[in-house]
Design a protein that fits this description.
By secondary structure, the chain is an alpha+beta fold. The protein folds into two domains: about 40 residues; about 110 residues, no CATH class. It is about 25% helix and about 20% strand. Strands 2-1-4 form a three-stranded mixed beta sheet, with no helix packed on it. β5 and β6 form a beta hairpin.
Length: about 170
């Protein structure tokens, strides 16, 4: 019976050492994972932008857009398009909504498997040339990109002035 007890004790010791090693590894990673999960929580809010009234913006106040070539539940912006129109990622945390009906917001699975936020089923994007909160330089670009009102509907008002400055 003593050899059995000795084997059990040896096994327990190895298990405890193994678990403490895993715990140490876990604690090394925990600052990164907790900061990334808190940083990954997406926020959408509303703000008054230009002549468009209250529109949806991201957590940094950047205007979000929808793309006429997308269909409900499917993004058709890829490759070079994404360089100019980065997606609004779904993130890993619980999304926060300020001034937006949460029932309008959903996610879309992109072709690469990543998740993107959507409003009324349409994927959401930022415009790379909007460098500051409150800008809407992407409005009506190519006649297919539109800011989104607080009600989740695209706003098709053309920007003021002659043309939009993007050769469209």
């Amino acid at each position: 019976m003593k050899p059995v007890v000795k084997r059990v004790m040896s096994g327990l010791a190895v298990g405890v050492l193994g678990l403490s090693g895993l715990t140490a590894c876990g604690s090394d990673d925990s600052p990164t994972s907790s900061s990334s999960s808190s940083a990954a929580a997406v926020k959408l809010a509303t703000a008054t932008v230009g002549d468009y009234g209250k529109v949806i913006v991201d957590g940094n106040g950047r205007t979000v857009y929808v793309f006429d070539k997308d269909t409900s539940g499917t993004s058709n912006c890829s490759g070079d398009c994404l360089a100019k129109w980065p997606v609004v990622p779904a993130g890993d945390g619980t999304p926060q909504f300020d001034g937006i009906d949460a029932s309008l917001v959903s996610t879309v699975t992109r072709a690469d498997g990543t998740m993107q936020l959507a409003i009324n089923g349409l994927p959401l994007y930022l415009f790379a040339s909007d460098s500051e909160a409150g800008e809407a330089k992407g409005q009506a670009v190519g006649g297919v990109w539109w800011v989104v009102g607080a009600n989740g509907q695209k706003i098709t008002t053309e920007p003021g002035g002659s043309g939009n400055g993007y050769g469209y």
